[in-house]
Amino acid sequence: xxxxxxLVVLVIIGIGFIGYRFMTKKNKASSIVSDLNTExxxxxxxxxGSIPEWLNGSFVRNGxxxxxxxxxKIAHWFDGPAMLHGFTFRNGAVSYxxxxxxxxxxxKIFVEGSFNYAGFATKSRFxxxxxxxxxxxxxxxPSIQNANVNVGTIANQYVALTETPLPVxxxxxxxxTLGALKFQDDLPKKNIxxxxxxxxxxxxxxxxxxxxxxxxxxxxxxxxYNAEKxxxxxxxxxxxxxxxxxxxFALTENYIVLVEFPLTVNPIDLMIMAKPYxxxxxxxxxxxxxxxxxxxxxxxxVNKIKDNDPFFAFHHVNAYxxxxxxxxxxxxxxxxxxxxxxxxxxxxxxxxxxxINQDAKRTKLMRYTVSPVTEIIDSRVLLDEPIEYPRxxxxxxTQPYRYVYAIDPRRLMLSDVQTGVLRPMYKIDTTTGNKxxxxxxxxxxGEPVFIPNPHSDKEDEGVVVNIILDVGKQRAFLLILxxxxxxxxxxxxxPHAIPLGLHGQFFKLQK
Length: 511
Ligand code: CO
Fold this sequence. Notes:
- This protein is mainly beta.
- A hairpin with a 6-residue loop joins strand 9 and strand 10.
- The chain is globular, with a radius of gyration of 21 Å.
- Mean pLDDT is 85; it is low at 1-29 and 118-140.
- Cobalt (II) ion is lined by residues 197, 247, 314-315, 503.
């Protein structure tokens, strides 16, 4: 039970960012795809192009980085300590701050000088996880976890998030770590998994999330965050024998939809811990995929619909109701190989990298139309391309919408950099299936984040920001595209190469 953190590791792998290893193999010293030791605070950057005058605020992105001290380094990027990267826009000027979260792992590395937790899916790794086990339990003074997946706000506080409790508060200006956000409520706090992808329904002004309580009686627990206090109000619970691994979920005006993939675990196996964490989860395609429909108001399970077609996904795109039906868009994989195979350490770096690229190749942007009370009415492919990191104009979350922004998540091999292989970023029109793309040779885009123009009510009027890693030139820049034309309007070079990361959000400027 203490190894729920392993899930976080899996997600990160699953998302596909281990390509750095082909670099580390060739160049043991360091890799720009993963490494960064330095921090800077509010450094002014030169802007190439022009920043819209309405764009004021901070774009903060989270993710693990690999570090190196004396000749020691973290063996795997996804074990790296969380680092926040913040680009602040103010009246056309841009400044940059990056900071490690001062977590237990950070202390271990930088204070104790220990890389004792390096290594993945090994016995020794587990003993380390055990040592830092209060990541997963509720103590009077919980230690600060390595929250390296996402950022957000809860009860008016900026927080770094992962899939284990608790959120870690940070200062939006300095990105300094402020401590754990302790919830004062009665929801389960031990032996839980929680999604790092909470939903914000702007229309109803509600933030909703779910957690999985593992135990003799496991359950999915749905809740809303109180807007002012660190308090979570229970919406409802659904008992489950063998919980599935799910990285995100869907929300509509009236329903929470949990798409339960057939990648499941027997909680008893987790408790016994006779084998490494990943080996407890298994893929059961014969079980198909379940759509659990929960009423947002009553918290009751309205329907559980079985789709005989098994699939897996990390990220939901959006969902909404239309003529009494639920329309749900999601980036699917035909199986969970991406996750399951990473328990196998016998693979070479190149094999792993290749594996990621092959798995990413099989992703599809799917649209399911579901009756809340009867069955799945339709499923169709909106886009048959390798994509991940789907984002939308968040004002359209739970509402009918048109545009998805996403990237080709496949990694670049060194030969790809030299031969100009492209890894595009897309703007996808879900009504037509058409896509517009931005691409440049030798670069890896991160997650595209759409920032709406506050003076417009057009869905795509705004900008798309993305931290782009130029692998060939060993530097990084923040790319700013016009949301409508998807053409570059500005780029801002960071003072150092910013390693590949996970999720980011834009926060409007505070006084
Ligand atoms: Co994610």
